[in-house]
Amino acid sequence: MVRLWSIHPRYLDPVGLVALWREALLAQAVLRGLTRGYTRHPQLIRFREHAEPEVAIGAYLRSIADEAERRGYSFDRSKIASAASVTSIEVGHGQLRFEWEHLIAKVRGRNPAWYESIASVKKPLPHPIFAIVRGSVAEWERANAARG
Q1: How does 58-81 read in b/e, with b if 16+ C-beta sit within 10 Å?
Q2: Which secondary structure element, helix H or strand E, spans residue 5, and what is its range?
Q3: Could you list the mean pLDDT of each consecutive 10-residue stretch along the chain, which spans 148 residues?
Q4: Fewest C-beta atoms under 10 Å: which of 25, 77, 91, 92?
Q5: Distance (Å) of CA 8 to CA 5, 37, 63, 147
Q6: How far, in Å, CA of 132 to CA of 100, rounded?
Q7: Residues spanned by the domain of 57
Q8: Half-sphere exposure of 82 toward its Cβ, with a 13 Å CA cutoff?
Q9: What pLDDT is stored for residue 15 in this prediction?
Q10: pLDDT for the residue numbered 85
Q11: DSSP H or E stretch at residue 51
């Protein structure tokens, strides 16, 4: 399943960071109308609701590429369709907490050393495109969880 994390990419282990890059590129293709797959994926709702969806996903991708570069990786920035600045997207504190718990559970089994490096974080930062506001888990997330 596609996961466009609300948490900052710095917390993702190498496997998670590469997966996020690929998934965000797929999301960009969907938002640009270049693919038929994943068009109704709930993770895209918040980008579709943005005044400039393609610009928003471009900003999302830039931050992932920035984190990759900070780690010495080279993600192909030419794949990012938009380089414009964008207004932030609001995300509820409950959503951030939900995703943090989800990430911790994934990383604990996949990469114990990485888990140890992030396990003590009590208040994770959001991805730079998101602004944290009061709120619970996103409706699209709850609906997805209810389906199983």
Answers
A1: bbbbbbbbebbeeeeeebeeeebb
A2: none
A3: 88 97 95 86 91 95 97 96 89 95 95 97 96 92 56
A4: 77
A5: 8, 26, 9, 27
A6: 14
A7: 9-147
A8: 17
A9: 96
A10: 85
A11: none
4 in a domain, yes or no?
no
How much is the pLDDT for 147?
Answer: 44
Question: Is 3 part of a structural domain of the chain?
Answer: no
Count of domains observed in the chain: 1
* pLDDT at residue 36 in the model: 82
1 in a structural domain: no
What's the pLDDT score for residue 35?
Answer: 87
Separation CA 148–CA 134 (nearest Å): 26
Q: What region, left, alpha or beta, does residue 2 occupy, with left being phi > 0 and alpha being psi -120 to 50 degrees?
A: beta
Q: Establish if 85 belongs to a structural domain.
A: yes
Can you tell me the distance from the alpha carbon of 10 to that of 76, in angstroms, rounded to the nearest whole number?
18
Residue of 97, 102, 100 lying closest to 136 (CA atoms)? 97
Of residues 44, 129, 142, 62, the one with CA closest to residue 90: 129
pLDDT at 142: 63
Residue at token pair 């380089």: 83
Pair 30, 41: CB distance under 8 Å: yes
